[in-house]
Amino acid sequence: MGSSCGRVCWKWRSPLRRLAGFSRLLSTAALAPQICVVGSGPAGFYTTQHLLKHHRLARVDIYEKLPVPFGLVRFGVAPDHPEVKNVINSFTQTAHSDRCSYYGNVTIGKDVTVKELQQAYHAVVLSYGAEDNRILGIPGENLSGVYSARAFVGWYNGLPENRDLKPDLSSETAVVLGQGNVALDVARVLLSPLDILRKTDITEGSLAAIACSKVKRVWLVGRRGPLQVAFTIKELREMINLPGTRPLLAPADFTGLGDVIKDVPRPRKRLTELMVKSALEKPGEKEAGRWASATKEWGLKFQRSPLEVLSAADGKQARGIRIAVTRLEGSGESARAVPTGEVEELECGLILSSIGYRSLPLDSAIPFDPKLGIIPNSLGRVQGEPGLYCSGWVKRGPTGVIITTMNDSFDTAQSVLEDLQTGVLNLSSSKEGFKSVRSILHSRGVHPVTFSDWEKIDAAEVARGKLAGKPREKIVDPQEMLQLISH
Amino acid sequence: MAAPGTASLLRAAAASSRCRWLLAASRGAAGRPDGESVAARTPGRFFGVSARARLSSEDKVTVHFINRDGDKLTAEGKVGDSLLDVVVDKNLDIDGFGACEGTLACSTCHLIFEDHIFEKLDAITDEEMDMLDLAYGLTETSRLGCQICLKKFMKNMTVRVPEAVADARQSIDMSKNS
Questions:
Q1: Beta-bridge partners for B138
Q2: B172 vs A1, A72, A232: nearest CB
C-alpha cells in the first residue's frame, strides 16, 4: 500500500508500536481504555491519532454516519485542492492501527444513543462537526435558484444528501452572500475552466451541469468592508490568478486602506495588501492580457446586507436580490454593519448563501448551546458530563483551517489522557467497547461498514476515476456503496 | 500500515521532489547564489540517480530540532533534502508535522530558525508567506520546513518547533472557512 502511506510524521514504524501490541497481550482488559469517537472527519481522526500515539494501550473506535470516512476532507475541501486531501494518508495509517476500528453507516443518536456508547466505553468524544448551515432569515430565501453554499459544495463533492440538488445555472449572474473561503470555493468552481475541473474528483454529474452553466459573473457580497473579509490569502490569490477570469474590484473600496493596515496583524495586512494591489495598481503584462481576454469575471461587493430575494413573475424563481447599503460602526474585526437606509437591487438568477456552517445537537441528553452552536466544554471536556468530550467544529464553532482543527483535537485528546492519568476516568470498570455496540446494532438491523470495506469502495472509485482521467469518481449513492461491499 | 522501507518509497514521491528539482535546475545553471560548490563538481549535469549515489558523507548535514516539550531531536539529512524529508525519513516524533505532505497547503511544518541561519535562507515565495500567515506562534524567523532544503552552511543548526498556541486564531476571522 505504498502509495497511500503518508509522508507525515506518524510513527507506526517505531518499535514502540510493537511494544504496545505486546503489552496489550499482557495487560488485562480493564487496563486498556476503551474510547470511541463520533465522526470521522479531521477532528475525529486527529483526536484518535493523538490518543493512540500517546497512550500505549488505548483502543479507539470511530463511528461515522455515512458509509465512507473523512468528513469534510472528502465532502468539503474543494475538488481543485487535492493537496489538502493529503491528510487522508495519515488518517488511513491511523485507521490501520490494530488499536483502531472504523464503523461507518452508524448514526449516533438514532442507531445507537450516546448513553449506550457511554455504557460501552470509558470515554466518548463527540467530533461530528457542523452538518447544517446558518440561514439568512429573509423573505424569498426558499425561492428556486437560492441554495446554501453548503448544499452546493455537498453537491459538487458528492455528498449523498445533496446529490439531487440540480442547481439552476441558467443565469449569467450569480450572487454569493458571504466573503469566506467557502464563498471563494463556490465562486471558483462556478468560474473555473472545465479543463481544470475535469481533472479533479468533482462528481461527473456536477461537472456535466457546470459544463452547461451560463454563469459568467459571480459577486461575493459582504455586509462589512474589505478589512473584515473572512477568506484567507491563499484562496484570494488563487481567485485572482484563475485563468479565463478577471476581478471586479471597485477602486473606491480600497483607496486609503494602505494607511489603515499599517498596524494590523500580518495575515490581515497581507490579505488587504493583495486586494489593494489588484484593485489599484496597474496589472503586469501577463495579468493585463489575461484580464483583457477573460470571458468570465468575479467581484467583491462590500457593505451590502441582503434584505429580500426577489421573485420572477411566476412567483417561484429568484430573479434578483434587494440589498441594504450599510455603514460600519467601529473598526477592525469587531466593526458592525448598520443599514444607511439606502437600498439597491441586483439582478441574478442564482443565489448561494455562504454565511457559515452550524452544528446541531445530537441527542437531547447532551448539553448544547444553540446560540453559539457548540457543545459547552472546557478544553474539550463536556460541561457536567464526566467521560464525555468534544473536538473540532462542534467544540469551538465552524471556523479555521486544517491546523486549527488539528491543534484543537490534540488538545481534547490531551484532556482525555490527563483524565486517564488522574483517575477521573475510572478504568476499574471493564468496558466491552464495540462488542456491546455490535449486539445493539445487530438487534436493530444496522450493518456497520469497516475500514477495509471502505478500502473496497475507495478502490472502485479510483478505478472509475482512472477511466475518466481523474483521481477518483465518487459514488454518490450510499446504497450503491453498500452493494459494492455486499451488505 | 507502513512496511519497512516505506520511507525510501516515499522519498521518491512527488511531494518531496520540490527541493531536488530546484537543485537540479540550479545545477543546470551557473551555480548557486550562495556559492555552494555542488554545481562545480558536476557542471552542467542534471541531478540523476548516478549523481545522487555519488553523494558522500560530506554531503550530510546534522540538524537539531527542539520539540514542543523542549526535547532535542537530532537527525542527519542529505544536502538537498527538505527539513520535512528529514523529519519523515528519520521518523522524528513531532506531532502533526507535515499534514499536507509538502504541498504548501497547510502550515504544520512551521519551524523557527536561528537568526544567522535565517538570514542565509533562500528568498521566501508569496505562497509560503500565505501559509505562514496561518501558522501558530509565528516569529520573525519562521519558515515552513517543507520549503527549506539542507545546505552545507546549515550543519549543526538548531530549529525550534513552535508551541501550538491559540493566538493565531484570533488574528483572522475565518468563520466561513471550508
A1: none
A2: A232
Q: Distance from B150 to chain A by nearest Cα, in Å?
A: 18
| Residues 114 through 133 of chain B touching chain A, CB cutoff 8 Å | 126-127, 129-131, 133
Residue B40, pLDDT > 80, answer no
How far off is chain A from B4, nearest CA to CA, in Å?
A: 7
- For chain B, the helix, strand and coil percentages under 3-state DSSP, each to the nearest 5: 35, 15, 50
Cα(B146)–Cα(A449) distance, rounded to whole angstroms? 36
% helix, strand, coil for chain A, step of 5: 40, 20, 40
**3-state secondary structure at position A443:** helix
All residues of chain B having their beta carbon less than 8 Å from the beta carbon of residue A50 are: 95
> Given B96, B105, B178, which is nearest A181 (Cβ)?
B178
Task: Show the cell assigned to A159.
Answer: 455528498
Concatenating the DSSP letter of every residue in A239-286 gives HHT-TTEEEE--HHHHTTHHHHGGGS-HHHHHHHHHHHHHHHSPPPHH
Confirm or reject contact between A414 and chain B (CB < 8 A): no
Q: Which cell goes with A100?
A: 483502531
Distance of residue B44 Cα from the nearest chain A Cα, in angstroms: 31
Q: How confident is the model at residue A141 (pLDDT cuts 50, 70, 90)?
A: very high
**Residues A105-121 as b or e (16 or more Cβ within 10 Å = b):** bbebbebbbbeebbebb
pLDDT over threshold 80, residue B43: no
pLDDT the model gives residue B55: 53
Residue B15 has pLDDT above 50, yes or no: no
Phi-psi region of B149 (alpha: psi -120 to 50; beta: other; left: phi over 0): beta
Amino acid symbol at B166: A
Q: Provide mean pLDDT across the span A207-236.
A: 97
* Pairwise CB contact (< 8 Å): A9 & B127: no
The pLDDT tens digits for A248-266 are 999 999 999 988 898 899 9
The C-alpha atoms of residue A9 and residue A90 are separated, in whole angstroms, by 9
| pLDDT band at B3; cut points 50, 70, 90 | very low
A8 touches chain B (CB under 8 A): yes
* Chain A contacts in chain B segment 42-81 (CB below 8 A): none
Reference B74, options B7, B159, B163; nearest CA is: B159
CB contact under 8 A, B172 and A267: yes
Burial of B163 (0-12, 13-18, 19+ CB in 10 A): exposed
Q: Give the Cβ contact number of residue B91 at 10 Å.
A: 16
Q: Is the pLDDT assigned to residue A75 strictly greater than 60?
A: yes
Going by C-alpha positions, the residue among A323, A330, A296 that lies closest to residue A308 is A323
Position A318, amino acid? A
Residue B121, classified by CB atoms within 10 Å of its CB into exposed (0-12), middle (13-18) or buried (19+), is: middle
Distance CA A178, CA A183 (A): 6
How far is Cα A388 from Cα A363, in angstroms, rounded to an integer?
Answer: 13
**Helix and strand numbers, DSSP H then E, in chain A:** 19, 18
Q: Can you tell me whether residue B73 is helix, strand or coil?
A: strand
pLDDT digits (tens, 9 = 90+) for A313-368: 999 999 999 999 999 999 988 999 999 999 999 999 999 999 999 999 998 889 99
Q: Is B87 on the interface with A (CB under 8 A)?
A: yes
**How many Å separate Cα B77 from the centre of its chain?**
10
Question: Given this model, what pLDDT does residue B164 score?
Answer: 73
Tell me, yes or no, if B147 comes closer than 8 A to chain A by beta carbon.
Answer: no
Interchain CB contact of A359 with B (< 8 Å): no
Contacts A84 to B, Cβ<8 Å? 100, 105-106
Phi, psi (rounded to 5 degrees) for A91: -65, -40
